[in-house]
Here is the input.
Amino acid sequence: MQTAEKIHSAQFLAQQLQEITVLLEKQQLERSLVHRGPTTNHELVEAMLQNQHQARLQEKFSSLHPADTASILESLPLDQRKTVWDAIKSDYDGQVLLEVSDAVRQTLISGMAAEEIASVASTLDTDELADLAADLPKRAMLKILRSLNSEERKHLNAILSYQDSQVGALMDFGMITIRTDLTLKAIIAYIRKLGKLPSHTDKLFVVDQNDKVLGILPLQRLLTHLPSQLVAEVMVTDFIRFQVGQEAAEAARAFERYDLISAPVVDSEGKLQGRLCVDNILDFIREKTDEDLLSQAGVGEQEDLFASVWKSARNRWGWLLINIVTAFASTRIIGVFEDIILQLVALASLMPIIAAMGGNTGNQTSMLIIRSLALGQITPANIRRLIKKELTLAILNGIFIGLILGLLSLLLYHDRALSAVMAIAMFINLLVAVIVGLSIPLLRHKFGKDPAVGTSVILTAITDSMGFFIFLGLAQLFLI
Here is the structure.
């Protein structure tokens, strides 16, 4: 198997994790044996063992990509993670810190001195430093800033001045700019003199003397046109560009739609500020997806798998406390109808069906709306038609599912009135579920909130409570 294939193989990564875990366990056993042995030259033996352990770990990680190293660190308990990080951190020049999750990065940085952090981050580009800035101690950040030249400091401050959701926060400065009056031959000579291109370079940016972007020169055109031609003759003037304050989600959709690799980032006057690359867009999409999944589950923030119990508990308490309130509300609704449940025991077995179907239907609708909002497919012009379509679908599903469950309850209990109540309650609850599934994400989006946060938790609580109330209320009206 080729090395490149191994890097992308989940099986290979799992094997590496297992081997490293076994190595760490052996090292722990060796330490315990030394401590139990005679005290003569105890410190010397322990120091020699420590050096051997570090050498073994460094050798083990030397052939791994920083992303694979980050994955392994995230999979190790805190004590083993610290042992590995202490052994390898000096060899990776900050790349692993970029690859690990925010929660794990904090655990790695917490055990490092400011000078050590500054040293590890010394080889990172300014856009990479910006990714780490929020997690770095102030003292370490000051040391890093002092080590930067004026241009690098300017670039770093520019990125940090934008919110995480804006294009400006994702841009980098590894780009080549050219003028319209240059020949393609001169540009090729310049690139050869550079020796290498910045990563993800698929085009050069054409600017005027004021750095205003006039067009782009794809590398394909640079190589396929006559060397004597001028840039002005072969450049592309109809191209995708992004504003520094533009939403990163919009840029992500454009990268997907137009299969972009890189694109210029400009200010309100059209002056070049940086470039946006596909790797940063992919990182943004992954982080946004992770946040949405956690938010839907009611988890406050990204959590280290091996974080302390206390920290994990605090991260999850918020929505759990809300669940307690909603659960009590549901039980109080059932308590109001205790008498009718005692008179007709069949109601107790049918109630969960009404609640479960309502929750599933509401979640289907809310997930569709959240996804459509994320893709920018919902606009003021089409929202009425969307709501009308979803309500019509709710009526159709309510009738269909209601009839099926009504027939099933009739076969089970041979009670026509009960089956009718079951069918009507299912119809009403599915309609309520769709209305709630539409309303929660749309209203949160309207008021500038993340439509995914807590939607599933709130939706389930409402559909459960309403399902119990509708079903038991109808039973009290028509069965007693």
